[in-house]
Design a protein that fits this description.
The chain is mainly α. The chain is 80% helix and 0% strand. It contains nine helices and no strands. Belongs to the BI1 family.
């Protein structure tokens, strides 16, 4: 619904800002690349929070703890993605962000129209040029969630889009 879409938008906006800062600021880039322990710490925090958030409905449905956990996941993953992006050429990062935005907007536009059931259109996605890995990340993870699971839905969509970005960044 609108609430999980707003959450995903805010998560992606924050991640985009972190990636831009880590990519365009040479001072931040050098600091991040010389502090690998912060990356490892962010990875540990991400893993410790995302697993219970994904698996325990008692956490993912308990307000405000679900939102606090989602913020922790977003901040830690944004730091990790920004660090990874800092090791790549600036133009490569810009192209990967643009491609991710285009793919995401295309999928959102297609999914929000009501004439077609998005879950039945895997072949169309493949024909439109989405490569096999992107297809598997977004197409085979069809989830039906109840309205109480807005944090889980936002987490699934956010992680899928970040994985698309990292996949495209790695393909350079």
């Amino acid at each position: 619904g609108l609430y999980d879409s707003s959450l995903v938008f805010l998560q992606l906006l924050f991640t985009f800002c972190v990636v831009c800062i880590f990519t365009f600021s040479s001072t931040v880039k050098e600091l991040v690349q010389s502090s690998i322990w912060v990356y490892v710490s962010a990875y540990i925090v991400f893993a410790v929070v995302v697993v219970p958030l994904s698996l325990c409905t008692s956490l993912s449905r308990r307000h405000p703890w679900n939102l606090i956990a989602l913020v922790v996941v977003t901040v830690s993953l944004s730091y990790m993605v920004g660090t990874i992006a800092s090791y790549h050429d600036t133009m490569t990062v810009i192209m990967a962000m643009g491609a991710t935005l285009t793919i995401s907007l295309g999928i959102i536009a297609f999914a929000t129209q009501s004439r077609y059931d998005f879950t039945l259109c895997y072949v169309l996605l493949l024909i439109l040029g989405l490569d096999l890995l992107m297809f598997m990340m977004t197409g085979s993870m069809s989830h039906r969630v109840s309205p109480e699971d807005y944090v889980t839905a936002a987490l699934i969509i956010y992680l899928d889009i970040v994985l698309i970005f990292l996949y495209l960044l790695g393909r350079r």
